């Protein structure tokens, strides 16, 4: 139910493409997804590239000029309902924008639930999930991390890898954060609340569920962006924000009037397009970016 789709689709047809070269991608040590049989496949949609049937997790670095490096790093988790990954709009384009601000960025291609290999069957399955997910989620306490153990293992492994190679990548191990979109936002929150050794220095929740959670006493600063017309989470309440405030932990929340779900880095007339500038300013305020 966390499929990422832009509010104003450019071209919603799914067109298969060859699996592209992924220079710099580093295979994580979490192994192959148990029971995975379908090969990894990619397609174009909304003018952007998506991956599916990912059975082996990777992390791709996007590093700033060392002379401009702030020492901060961000693990970027694309969305796609844990069935596909928006590798550009919520992945590489975000990472490139962060690197331009002196922040080392790492796109996490985490393992996914298997989907039909046939594109038409996959499209029907995604449309069915997308339609059913448009029901408003009930407010209340969120079961964080439930059903995403492989993805959570991938996230933890990504943090471990970045810290292990921190000196090489000009990263301060204490300044490694995470930003996620839709399903990636769900994974980001789970990484903070149930990821034990991951310990993000900060988190960004971009159009993810905002249900009430139990907040650790040492929870990191959190940035949240959501469009009020998001068909999934726009009417689900703001329990997550209230939870962070009740715990007296730093939180910044941007509720945009328009933008729908999945706006990411797509250029749009809605003010939601400005979410990244606000995120950059927030990071700069904390000393993580330029």
Task: Quickly list its features.
290 residues; 12 strands; alpha/beta; 22% strand
Structural commentary:
The protein is built from 6 helices and 12 strands. It has helices at residues 88-99, 119-133, 149-164, 183-194, 239-246, 275-285; strands at residues 15-17, 26-32, 41-45, 48-52, 56-62, 73-77, 84-86, 104-109, 176-181, 203-206, 222-227, 251-256. The radius of gyration is 17 Å and the shape is globular. The protein is α/β, with parallel strands linked by helices and 290 residues long. Strand 9, helix 4 (183-194) and strand 10 (203-206) form a beta-alpha-beta unit. Helix content is 26%, strand content 22%. Helix 3 (149-164) crosses helix 4. The model is unreliable at 1-5 (pLDDT under 50). The strands form 2 sheets. An 8-stranded mixed sheet has the order 2-5-8-6-9-10-11-12, sandwiched between helices. Strands 1-3-4-7 form a 4-stranded antiparallel sheet.
Task: Summarize this entry quickly.
The protein has six helices and twelve strands. The protein has helices spanning 88-99, 119-133, 149-164, 183-194, 239-246, 275-285, and strands at 15-17, 26-32, 41-45, 48-52, 56-62, 73-77, 84-86, 104-109, 176-181, 203-206, 222-227, 251-256. The strands form two sheets. An eight-stranded mixed β-sheet has the order 2-5-8-6-9-10-11-12, with helices on both faces. It has a four-stranded antiparallel β-sheet with strand order 1-3-4-7.
Estimate the strand proportion.
Answer: 15-25%
What percent of residues adopt helix (DSSP H or I)?
A: 25-40%
Structural class label: alpha/beta
Q: What's the mean pLDDT score? A: 93
Spatial strand order of the main sheet: 2-5-8-6-9-10-11-12
Main β sheet profile: 8 strands, mixed
Number of helices: 6
Low-confidence stretches: 1-5
What is the CA-based Rg, rounded? 17 Å
* Number of E strands: 12
Termini separation: 35 Å
Shape: globular
Q: What is the N-to-C succession of helices and strands?
A: EEEEEEEHEHHEHEEHEH
């Amino acid at each position: 139910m966390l499929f990422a789709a832009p509010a104003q689709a450019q071209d919603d047809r799914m067109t298969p493409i060859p699996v592209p070269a992924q220079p710099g991608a580093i295979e994580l040590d979490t192994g192959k997804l148990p029971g995975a049989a379908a090969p990894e496949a990619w397609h174009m949609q909304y003018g952007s590239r998506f991956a599916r049937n990912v059975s082996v997790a990777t992390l791709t670095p996007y590093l700033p000029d060392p002379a401009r490096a702030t020492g901060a790093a961000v693990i970027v988790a694309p969305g796609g309902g844990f069935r596909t990954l928006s590798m550009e709009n919520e992945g590489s384009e975000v990472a490139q924008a962060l690197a331009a601000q002196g922040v080392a960025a790492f796109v996490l291609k985490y393992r996914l639930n298997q989907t039909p290999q046939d594109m038409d069957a996959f499209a029907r399955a995604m449309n069915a999930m997308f339609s059913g997910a448009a029901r408003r989620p009930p407010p209340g306490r969120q079961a964080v991390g439930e059903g995403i153990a492989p993805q959570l293992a991938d996230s933890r492994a990504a943090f471990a890898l970045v810290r292990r190679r921190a000196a090489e990548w000009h990263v301060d191990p204490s300044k490694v954060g995470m930003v996620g979109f839709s399903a990636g936002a769900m994974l980001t929150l789970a990484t903070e609340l149930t990821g034990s050794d991951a310990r993000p220095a900060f988190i960004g929740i971009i159009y993810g569920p905002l249900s009430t959670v139990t907040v650790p006493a040492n929870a990191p600063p959190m940035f949240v962006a959501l469009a009020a017309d998001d068909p999934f989470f726009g009417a689900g309440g703001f329990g997550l924000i209230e939870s962070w405030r009740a715990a007296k932990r730093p939180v910044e929340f941007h509720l945009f009037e328009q933008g729908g779900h999945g706006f990411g880095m797509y250029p749009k007339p809605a003010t939601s397009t400005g979410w990244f500038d606000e995120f950059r300013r927030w990071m700069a305020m904390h000393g993580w970016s330029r």
